[in-house]
């Protein structure tokens, strides 16, 4: 299955009858049917799925691993040339007509070795990220339900919590409102002339995402004070990733927001603690059980005002948030490292698999264009 090939976790098993196609480690597997038709994988020991084909070499012109990387470079093209109005599938004629470069076999082997070294580094980072994510999940379960150092607990309408914690409605702690709702295209402008506009797209469990940020005019911003947000305010996704929360960081001094719930900062709670609380899976399930609005189930302000949350003392809230923030910083570093390795791999594939750079005696050599 694709899950097995992507993650290495076998989730489907078959009884061997003798008619199956056995896949060996390192075979080249092409996903033939489905929404991701054209995707290529390095095989793992198992039985070939009916939606896949195993590509085999007729002659030893190519190193198998080099050919995999070469075809991987063509993956986007293959995906874009699929056929079929129902279930898309790879166009056999397009696949057969691919023109591929053929460097000397020793160079192929060296290129494959270089790219697989980067892949191994990426895999190690992926494993580190997965391990840290498991750590964070465990810490959230411990800290957001048992707190720090508590011995006595009580049963409440939102579950078992420390005896010293309270249970309050969010609306009792602060003002809950909503960002601008309406047409906004005419107010978009450039970064130099405008103010950042945050929407659901910019909200993630890892904080505010700024890579797809848009800007609105300063005039629009000044007229719409209700949808202005400030450092310490929390914005919550109303649709899509409903319930996901992020705190406005200190460096975003002037911000406008679109169609999100705004939880104003307050001296009664520590914003990062509340953010973690809303991104805690049990809290989100409870919230999504309450959410109302359209058929899609939009989280609205009335729901959040009445929504009950556990409330430790302010010092404990801060301590819990600080512990989880340390793990988040580690995750951020690992994810940046992964992004860097992905860029390196992409650059190497574009250079080495097209002949822009040649590999001889273990070194890169620039191709000299006439």
Explain briefly what this protein structure is.
The chain is built from 10 helices and 22 strands. The protein has helices at 2-7, 64-73, 75-80, 92-96, 105-146, 218-223, 271-278, 281-290, 301-306, 314-352; strands spanning 22-23, 28-31, 40-42, 46-47, 52-55, 153-156, 159-162, 166-169, 176-178, 188-189, 194-198, 203-204, 207-208, 214-217, 228-229, 234-237, 245-247, 255-257, 260-263, 308-311, 357-360, 363-366.
Helix coverage percent: 25-40%
- Structural class of the secondary elements? alpha+beta
Enumerate the spans where pLDDT stays under 50 for 5 or more consecutive residues.
Answer: 291-295, 365-370
User: What is the global morphology?
Assistant: elongated
Describe the structure.
The chain is elongated. The longest helix is centred in the middle third of the chain and has 42 residues, at 105-146. Strand 2 and strand 3 (40-42) form a beta hairpin. Helices cover 37% and strands 20% of the residues. It has a five-stranded mixed β-sheet. With 370 residues, the chain is of the alpha+beta class. It has three domains: 2-102, Alpha-Beta Complex (Adenine-n6-DNA-methyltransferase TaqI, Chain A, domain 2), CATH 3.90.220.20; 104-146 and 315-365, Bipartite methylase S protein (Helix Hairpins), CATH 1.10.287.1120; 166-311, Adenine-n6-DNA-methyltransferase TaqI, Chain A, domain 2, CATH 3.90.220.20. It has ten helices and 22 strands. It has helices spanning 2-7, 64-73, 75-80, 92-96, 105-146, 218-223, 271-278, 281-290, 301-306, 314-352, and strands spanning 22-23, 28-31, 40-42, 46-47, 52-55, 153-156, 159-162, 166-169, 176-178, 188-189, 194-198, 203-204, 207-208, 214-217, 228-229, 234-237, 245-247, 255-257, 260-263, 308-311, 357-360, 363-366.
């Amino acid at each position: 299955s694709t899950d097995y090939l992507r993650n290495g976790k076998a989730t489907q098993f078959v009884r061997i009858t003798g008619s199956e196609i056995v896949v060996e480690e390192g075979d080249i597997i092409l996903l033939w049917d489905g929404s991701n038709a054209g995707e290529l994988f390095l095989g793992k020991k198992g039985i070939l799925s009916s939606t896949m084909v195993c590509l085999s070499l007729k002659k030893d012109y190519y190193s198998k691993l080099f050919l995999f990387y070469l075809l991987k470079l063509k993956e986007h093209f293959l995906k874009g040339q699929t056929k079929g109005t129902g279930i898309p599938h790879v166009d056999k004629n397009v696949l057969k007509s691919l023109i591929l470069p053929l460097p000397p076999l020793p160079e192929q082997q060296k290129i494959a070795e270089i790219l697989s070294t980067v892949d191994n580094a990426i895999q190690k980072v992926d494993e580190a990220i997965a391990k840290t994510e498991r750590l964070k999940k465990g810490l959230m379960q411990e800290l957001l339900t048992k707190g720090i150092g508590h011995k006595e607990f009580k049963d409440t309408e939102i579950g078992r919590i420390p005896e010293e914690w309270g249970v309050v409605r969010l609306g009792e702690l602060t003002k809950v409102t909503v960002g601008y709702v309406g047409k906004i295209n005419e107010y978009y402008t450039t970064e130099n002339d405008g103010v950042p506009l945050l929407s659901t797209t910019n909200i993630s469990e890892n904080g505010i995402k700024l890579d797809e940020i848009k800007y609105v005019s300063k005039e629009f911003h000044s007229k719409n004070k209700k949808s202005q947000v400030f450092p310490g305010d929390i914005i919550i996704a109303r649709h899509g990733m409903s319930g996901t929360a992020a705190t406005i960081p200190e460096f975003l001094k002037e911000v406008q927001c679109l169609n999100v719930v705004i939880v104003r900062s307050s001296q009664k709670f520590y914003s990062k603690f509340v953010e973690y609380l809303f991104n805690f899976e049990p809290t989100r399930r409870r919230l999504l059980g309450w959410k109302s609005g359209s058929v899609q189930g939009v989280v609205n302000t009335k729901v959040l005002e009445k929504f009950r949350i556990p409330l430790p003392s302010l010092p404990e809230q801060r301590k819990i948030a600080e512990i989880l923030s340390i793990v988040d910083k580690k995750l951020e570093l690992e994810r940046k490292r992964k992004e860097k390795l992905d860029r390196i791999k992409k650059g190497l594939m574009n250079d080495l698999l097209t002949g822009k750079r040649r590999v001889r005696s273990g070194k890169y050599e620039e191709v000299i264009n006439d």
